[in-house]
Automatic annotation (TrEMBL):
SUPFAM superfamilies documented for this protein: MetI-like
Similarity section: Belongs to the binding-protein-dependent transport system permease family.
Lipid bilayer topology: Multi-pass membrane protein
Name under which the protein is recorded: NitT/TauT family transport system permease protein/putative hydroxymethylpyrimidine transport system permease protein
GO cellular component terms attached to this protein's record: plasma membrane
Domain of life: Bacteria
Subcellular location: Cell membrane
Residue stretches making up the ABC transmembrane type-1 domain: 84-264
Amino acid sequence: MTTAAAPTTSVAEPPVRAEIPPAARAGLLLRVFRITRSWLVLGSAVVLWQVVVEVFGIAPYILPAPSEMIASFADNAGLFLDGLLMTTLMSLGGFGVALVVGVALAVLMARSALFEELVYPFLNIVRVMPTVAVAPLLIIWFGRNALPIIICSFLIAVFPILVDVAHGLTSVDEDLVSVMKLANASELSILLHVRIPNALPYLFSSFRVAAPGAVVGALLGEFIGARRGLGYLITVYSAQLNTAAVFVLALLSCLVGIVFFNVCVWLERIVVPWRTVVR
């Protein structure tokens, strides 16, 4: 006589939870802190600013609280954003002209010592001449339109591009140039395959100075003679002692310069990835 075996019941094991090792968790937290630490400091500064203004009862026309600045932006958002757009366009125009003219002059100066000797004194005059003194003349000559603003932006942005690109074109490895000449390479071929690749890091380094400078030049032109733009609005609200609006406009101006700078850094990482920075 056979007896049936008792059925066996299998007990499901609880799922194993994946745990992050302590070292990896600490590294993750450290990376998050490095990413957010600048924003934490900025937020703490804004909170401290608000507290100081409220505790000491500082008059709004002297130092407005961040809450008042937010309210001013909310009340004039359309006008401020229009000024932001106009200043950005003027800055882009001045920077674009400075890029074309600066690179062209740099190539000519790098290839001709006579041209450099003849042009460099005039470039030094442009460099040391205060743009604020030239801007009224530009308004007289060209009127109250976009052209004087673009020229002011160009005058500040062109010199860093010109100097750095000329230096990059002339600081090539002479042995490499000699090898190219032994291979019967033309001057144009040497320029395209040796000098320009060598000058690219110098070009993007100049962008870090020229791009924010273009914004400063555009603002200066708008201060002197414009009917739109952040610089024009700053003069209007300054005359009204509306300090909160002036602070907002100044922050928007800083935003344009910061965006220009970071776009140039991003382009540098894409175009010249072989350049490394040692800290």
